## 1
Amino acid sequence: MRVDVSMKVHEDVLFWAFRYCLSRETYAKDDGIAAVIHNWNNITEATRRKILHEIREHLAKKSGILDGWEKVLQHSERKPLTGVQPDDMLDDDT
């Protein structure tokens, strides 16, 4: 059963779901990707930075093998963070 991504959830819950889905190879990953993209404009800038940072780390560990999370990176480039260019996003360990 697929989750309706139009359902409103608290940002923390969405972030926890993102972290759960990040390393999964099941349909949960696809649902997590869809939920993050669907809610991108409602996520605070700080949480978006964390999500992008963790996705980049995840993809780096996979040696460039794309697994769907690159869709969030592409979406973020179309809807960039306020005053921040994609290359400038989160270099610290927050």
Note: The first helix runs from residue 11 to 22.
## 2
Amino acid sequence: MKITTDQRYRKALHVCSAELSKEQGENPRAAAQCFFRMGVVLSRLGETGGAIRCFADAFMLRDLSSELVKAQQWRLFHDTQMAVYILGKRNRIISTLAEGDMVHDLIKRRWYELRSEMERSEIPFAGTDLSAWFRTVRIDFPWDMEDVLQEDGTPFDQIQDDILEECVIITH
């Protein structure tokens, strides 16, 4: 009996899960690698919500310098923007660790800019639904030209709010 691609991916997902359970938080880089691999597998299986969560976790863990790791607003912003990036790609996958690190750094830089703008604002920010507000923040992600040239606008403009909302909710 021939093993199908789907069966191979499901086996890989099981192996990644087992490897992750061995880490027990001792090596964040190794755990990040497992999350990244799981994200790739889930993406290829078409399980976009789970893939987004894995990718978001992977690149948060890879940023060992981040003092923001436990900040709840930062995490919500990061996960929302990571979902925007992934959903804006035709293949819904982060191909390399370098690509994910770059996207994470863009999100982090925009977060610091956003916090600075809020602190300098003469009008106090009283937003209660931060997730809705975070979805309106635009980051100039470097999507592949294939993704941009297919339709009018940017991939960000093409994402339907209900799909984004569902994927972001899944990640929390």
Note: Residues 119 and 137 are 17 Å apart (CA to CA).
## 3
Amino acid sequence: MFKRTIVAFCLLLLFTSIYSQNSKNKQELSVTLDVVGKGAPATCAHADTSNYYFATVNVLNTQDTAISIWVFSCSWPMDAFAINSQSIAFRFCFRGCDHNVPKEIRIPPKKSVQFYGTISSWKKDSSIARIKVGFKYFRTADALWDSEESKASQKLYTMIWSNEVELKDNLYSYEIK
């Protein structure tokens, strides 16, 4: 009887470690960046739009349970993303925002949320050819309210970096993926 208990316990441990959601080797989210093409939304018309690119960021839940991410309802392009360049930013030409509050986005297992926006460079040359976007994975709404320095120092979010892409105009072209 004692041997059966030990065998059952070992099998339980093995099963739990294989199928655990908290695997140390796998991130909860995967981030993919696509640069669609050069251009800017009409709401940005007052600015110099020569170095704007339309982009999509796909945040995929790699787990087999639903997870929640938190972003601000209006300022998510600036607060939820970082780019690995000092002269490029995820931009948002405001159309007005009366209520910038934390918003929970629940992502079902193996599903994703797509963010649409623009990336802009304030350098006129083309020395920045390749970029990555980092998604700030906030697990709670409270963490959104702290200052950027406090958020980073207290590890209130996990930065998940995307693939590296070339910053180029892809409009009126195609590619096989």
Note: Residues 14-23 have pLDDT under 50 and may be disordered.
## 4
Amino acid sequence: MLTPRQAAARRGVTATTLYDWLGRSRRGLFVLRGRPVTVEFFQTGARGQGRIRIAAREVERVRELMRVPVDPARTRRLPVRQDRFPGITVPLGRPA
């Protein structure tokens, strides 16, 4: 179990940003890469007013959700030289 400060350090964000994420997650407003995400955490004390603890696997899960997949480079076709213009069906030049 990690403290919010330790979890934030693993994520590379500030503790206040992590608290914001947890608050948004509780309300269902936390969105990563277009998908709603729920972050599971434990809060001790009477009526949940105590210290927050986050499992290390949950921090890793959020990290994986933030990962950007690498798209393979697409091969480009060489441009084809066109002697005609699209939509023009008459020969070009001065009228005879």
Note: Residues 4-66 form one domain.
